[in-house]
Amino acid sequence: MRFTTLIKHPADWMKGSGLHSDVVMTSRVRLARNLRGFSFPGYSAERQRVELLELARPCVESLPEMADGYSEEYSGLSKIRKQVLVERHLVSREHAARAAGCAVVVDRKQSLSIMINEEDHFRIQGIRAGLNLRSAYSLVDKVDTALESMLPYAYDDRLGYLTACPTNLGTGMRASVMLHLPALVLSDQINPVIKAVGKIGLAVRGLYGEGTEALGNLFQISNQHTLGEKEGEIISQIEKVIERVVSSEVNARQKLLEDNPTMLHDQVGRAFAILRYAHVLTSKEALNLLSLLRLGADMDLIPNCDRSLLDMLLLEIQPAHLQLSAERDLSPEERDTRRAEITRTRLQLLTGPSNVSTINQPSEEKPSDSNDE
Amino acid sequence: MKCDVCESEATVFLTQIINGQMTTVNLCDTCSKAKGVTDETGFGLAEAFLSQAPAPISAETACPECGFTAAQLKKIGRMGCPECYHTFRDGLDGLLKSMHKGTRHVGKVPHQIVTQNAIAGNLGLLREELASAVRDERYEDAARLKSEIESLQSSHPSHA
């Protein structure tokens, strides 16, 4: 499959469905695996990485899951194309920064990707829409078992799967869930939630993983421990935590609607107005406003707004996707103009937030408390 | 003051008195974590460092497989190759304790290893049975067991 064909279609997980999909965007599970007798990619010479790639890539491509898939070595990929794969969460930022001896293989539905020579020889990743870690795990588990029958894995009875970084030893598994938590952010409850999640040994990160900002009220929660626990136990623990965070977010949304409907309608209405009519939109502004619009759509404040339209737009307006569709490099200013143009066009189809009056609602105790002169 | 393990600047200074005998240890931040000093629950200083202390890994210690050195490990916090986990095994447990729920893998085991372990287990049992057959002078059983062992070994040469 060609790159353009792969990217033309939305991934299965972008269709905005699945359990708790009003709060949970995606569930991802990745396994780190390495081969015996080869140095880890971060320490090996280019010659060794190429040797491993030549051995491993045909095995990966031969997997039944990868039939009609997309397979590309990094030396044949432009910077923008690599970045598009990062924006689609198919490869990591770290992997995209590498060159010779690195490759990625993606299935046609974009729900399975295998990075070769990332920090580890293999990073096998499965993505599902909504809260569905188990299905993502069973996908990567199956692929892992098939690869293991073809290639000699580095495994130790005591330490489990041997990985470049000791933080991944044991199962080599990282399970992460991407959450959209606008109501917890709007009602200032997000910090205690993050703290509580951190206390039980899970990590909370921003949109693109380690060290990134939580743009668009998007947060990733994932396990930190990989040794001393079974895969199923790790997943159960995350599921339990996610269920609790989801119900906090749902409650916070309900409470906003009851206690502060004016503020909520105002935020959603402003977000719609700017996105619908602006001619210049920075990435950060667009992500944050789209988050509010998605909140409005999920709470039925915007009639007939399909969530997947917004999720697709969220991807389309990211820097590399913009440059790919323009078929050239764009300056940041050009990107902001183009981003606004695409957003205006996509939102044309929407009728806008319903025009409800909230003045006479009982919870609005002090309508006179405005700043009007 | 220098770290007793790796000669970096020491930041952790420990004194412990057991049966009137005083022991002091100076460690850098990394080594103190590696040795599990941050884990205050029941670590014995003397046990951890002196009585059964393995020879400290010097910065020049290199992995025989890939040439990766202890100094590099300390600098980047990652291993050079799978074999490094054997080379730099000493002190690893303390590090793992600070990172993970346990120090022993309990998750998925590659099917190849499961099969190998099962074969090794079967071979062990058969050998025991063979020994007892020989001891009891049950020679027919012994001959049967011997041929079973041989056929298992020939189909899985790594266990020969």
Automatic annotation (TrEMBL), chain A:
Modulation of this protein's activity: Appears to be allosterically activated by the binding of pArg-containing polypeptides to the pArg-binding pocket localized in the C-terminal domain of McsB.
- Record GO terms (molecular function): ATP binding; creatine kinase activity; protein arginine kinase activity
**What Gene3D superfamilies does the database record attribute to this sequence?**
Glutamine synthetase/guanido kinase, catalytic domain (3.30.590.10)
An example GO biological process term is:
phosphocreatine biosynthetic process
Q: Basic and acidic residues compositional bias: what residue ranges? A: 363-373
Q: What is its EC number?
A: 2.7.14.1
Catalytic activity, as annotated: L-arginyl-[protein] + ATP = N(omega)-phospho-L-arginyl-[protein] + ADP + H(+)
Which portions of the chain have biased composition (kind: Polar residues)? Answer: 350-362
Ranges spanned by the short sequence motif RDXXRA motif of the pArg binding pocket involved in allosteric regulation, renumbered to the chain:
335-340
Keyword list, A-Z = Allosteric enzyme, ATP-binding, Kinase, Nucleotide-binding, Transferase
Gene Ontology CC, one term: extracellular space
Instruction: Show the Pfam families listed in the entry.
Output: ATP-gua_Ptrans
Using the UniProt annotation, give all residue ranges assigned to the region (Disordered): 350-373
Q: Which residues form a coiled coil?
A: none
Instruction: Report the family membership.
Output: Belongs to the ATP:guanido phosphotransferase family.
What is this protein identified as? Protein-arginine kinase
Q: Which organism is it from?
A: Prosthecobacter fusiformis
TrEMBL record, chain B:
The chain positions of domain UVR read 126-154
Keywords, sorted A to Z: Kinase, Transferase
Under InterPro entries, the record lists:
UVR_dom (IPR001943), YacH (IPR025542)
Domain of life, per lineage: Bacteria
| Any one GO MF annotation of this record | zinc ion binding
Mind listing the GO biological process terms from this record? stress response to cadmium ion; stress response to copper ion
Indicate yes or no for the key word Transferase.
yes
Pfam family, any one = UVR
PANTHER family per UniProt: PROTEIN-ARGININE KINASE ACTIVATOR PROTEIN (PTHR38430:SF1)
Write down what this protein is called: Protein arginine kinase activator
